[in-house]
């Protein structure tokens, strides 16, 4: 099961002030302290637009396990309408086949590619490393430069380890802010990450905080989610200082080793550019994710591309108006 469809993730979302709904083919139920997502149900997270409008987000699978795409889309449409959502943003898991796939088109074409909140669309492609291989093979399948940078960091005395919230959160937050300023990316509120670490602490789903440091100075950080047979690199940041020590490379390798020791089969890099090469076969440097994609692909693995994300319009006129505002803004 995808970690965003677990009860642990639902409780975390509730802790940061969001409503969570359990969806089945026959009912929609608002979760509370005495109600979890049950077998045969999916989870939808309610989010806000302009503080007064709402939309739903369903990530990592079908709204009801085993349901077909067209039926699932219809269930989400009807459930979103009942809850007053403007739209339902649905991202099925990457396990579904994508060859010649087309999203189901409902009556009046309520199913569309995202036209609003584009930056919040989950990544369509990711990089998956098979941790069933021994460490020697994993290293051998990495890019030569990546292996070199890992060994360089080790020789220079960089240390990368998992840390408790009490030990490492301040350094994590400092590095995340530094990365956001440098790369001009958005962040969640500080309390969002802290609650993630505090609440996702069970056997089924757990958030792990990692730090890489040199001579007591923190240089790189990451949040890793373990759920079932998969470890997911969800958030990360690095310092502007001592970049020649290659701390992020060693940090990724230590997280892979950790995930393997925890019994995980797969290491999910959580997002790469879906088209990473140009017509000449070289990296397409114009893509917004070209830099991070180049870094991640150095660790080997296989790019897996899902069917992407769709918006199911529950209030089509209002959705179209929001899309119009976005076009006027940009």
UniProtKB/TrEMBL annotation:
<keyword id="KW-0012">Acyltransferase</keyword>
<keyword id="KW-0133">Cell shape</keyword>
<protein>
    <recommendedName>
        <fullName>BioF2-like acetyltransferase domain-containing protein</fullName>
    </recommendedName>
</protein>
<dbReference type="GO" id="GO:0016755">
    <property type="term" value="F:aminoacyltransferase activity"/>
</dbReference>
<dbReference type="InterPro" id="IPR003447">
    <property type="entry name" value="FEMABX"/>
</dbReference>
<dbReference type="Pfam" id="PF02388">
    <property type="entry name" value="FemAB"/>
</dbReference>
<dbReference type="GO" id="GO:0008360">
    <property type="term" value="P:regulation of cell shape"/>
</dbReference>
<keyword id="KW-0808">Transferase</keyword>
<keyword id="KW-0573">Peptidoglycan synthesis</keyword>
<comment type="similarity">
    <text>Belongs to the FemABX family.</text>
</comment>
<dbReference type="GO" id="GO:0071555">
    <property type="term" value="P:cell wall organization"/>
</dbReference>
<dbReference type="GO" id="GO:0009252">
    <property type="term" value="P:peptidoglycan biosynthetic process"/>
</dbReference>
<dbReference type="InterPro" id="IPR050644">
    <property type="entry name" value="PG_Glycine_Bridge_Synth"/>
</dbReference>
<dbReference type="InterPro" id="IPR016181">
    <property type="entry name" value="Acyl_CoA_acyltransferase"/>
</dbReference>
<keyword id="KW-0961">Cell wall biogenesis/degradation</keyword>
């Amino acid at each position: 099961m995808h970690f965003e469809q677990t009860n642990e993730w639902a409780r975390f979302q509730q802790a940061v002030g969001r409503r969570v709904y359990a969806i089945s083919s026959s009912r929609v139920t608002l979760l509370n302290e005495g109600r979890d997502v049950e077998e045969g149900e999916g989870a939808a997270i309610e989010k806000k637009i302009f503080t007064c409008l709402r939309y739903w987000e369903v990530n990592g699978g079908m709204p009801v396990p085993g349901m077909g795409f067209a039926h699932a889309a219809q269930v989400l449409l009807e459930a979103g309408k009942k809850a007053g959502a403007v739209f339902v943003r649905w991202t099925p898991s990457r396990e579904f086949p994508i060859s010649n796939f087309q999203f189901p088109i409902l009556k009046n074409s309520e199913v569309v590619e995202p036209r609003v909140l584009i930056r919040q669309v989950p990544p369509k492609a990711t990089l998956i490393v098979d941790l069933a291989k021994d460490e020697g093979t994993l290293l051998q399948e990495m890019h030569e430069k990546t292996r070199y940078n890992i060994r360089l960091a080790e020789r220079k005395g960089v240390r990368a380890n998992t840390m408790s919230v009490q030990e490492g959160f301040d350094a994590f937050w400092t590095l995340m802010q530094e990365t956001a300023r440098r790369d001009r990316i958005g962040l969640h509120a500080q309390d969002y990450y802290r609650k993630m670490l505090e609440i996702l602490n069970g056997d089924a789903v757990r958030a792990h905080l990692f730090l890489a440091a040199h001579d007591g100075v923190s240089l790189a950080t990451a949040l890793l989610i373990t759920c079932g047979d998969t470890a997911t690199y969800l958030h990360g940041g690095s310092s502007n200082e001592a970049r020649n020590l290659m701390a992020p490379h060693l940090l990724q390798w230590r997280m892979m080793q950790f995930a393997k020791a925890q019994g995980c089969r797969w290491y999910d890099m959580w997002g790469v550019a879906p088209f990473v090469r140009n017509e000449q076969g070289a990296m397409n440097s114009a893509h917004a994710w070209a830099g991070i994609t180049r870094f991640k692909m150095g660790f080997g693995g296989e790019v897996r591309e899902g069917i992407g994300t769709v918006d199911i319009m529950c209030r089509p006129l209002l959705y179209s108006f929001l899309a119009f505002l976005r076009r006027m803004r940009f």
